[in-house]
Amino acid sequence: MYTRPASTLQCGRHRLDLSFPHVMGVLNVTPDSFSDGGHHVALDDARQRAEKMLGEGASIIDVGGESTRPGAAAVPVQQELDRVMPVVEALVRDLDALVSVDTSTPEVMHEVANAGAGMLNDVRNLRREGAMRAAATTGLPVCLMHMLGEPGDMQNDPHYDRPVEEAVAEFLEARVADCEAAGLRRERLLIDPGFGFAKTVEHNLRLLKYMERLTALELPILVGMSRKSMIGKVLERPVEERLAGGLALSAMAVERGARILRVHDVGPHVDAVNMAWAVLKEGCDND
Question: Fewest CB atoms within 10 A around its CB: which of 135, 189, 203, 218?
Fold first, then answer.
């Protein structure tokens, strides 16, 4: 078992204690996300969903305005802003929520930071033109996710010439070095192995099995496996029947060092994470 030293992450006006794991609730304000597309497009629906997730124990609400499911196309900047900004403003103003924004777009990064968002979550690991500079100027923590290619083509025969956990760790280590060179301090960075992004089911399973390899980077690890096709393919379940598999994966991720679990079904995952953590911490006193 890997135990990270106690630390905190400054997220705008919020401080996130990373000495124990947290659940991040997914709030997609898109018409086409793979699981909840179109469910929370209206502002009132989005606010109510966020309030429910916070009540169930979510520490962070992750707002996304551009679908990154396999095969998804990019959306225009203004459309992403129109989807995301009213929701971020409402969650910050009305719920005092710690809001993360799932975006790769420099203009969106600037605007959501000004609106009070506390974290940036970029599946493209700041590869869009201007994204690295924009993220650095916001002063917010940034999660860098492993992905090869773009959502539109990432699942076109993904392959690696060495064990996937080694490839992912080396890729993220290089991106962290690039960020530091661009002025993004290491203490502002998180990493995400990118389950389901440019990976087969076999890659995903092995990556979780050996995820402790990523702890060598000594950065907080965020994982997102909720409702994903890896569960569906292993268990032969449609997306609406993948909760049990997701709970198992979340517990295993916590055991392997994850500190943030990005999920759709917050309440059950909070229980699973807290139970797993209670077992891992048993007898550790103030460890």
Answer: 218
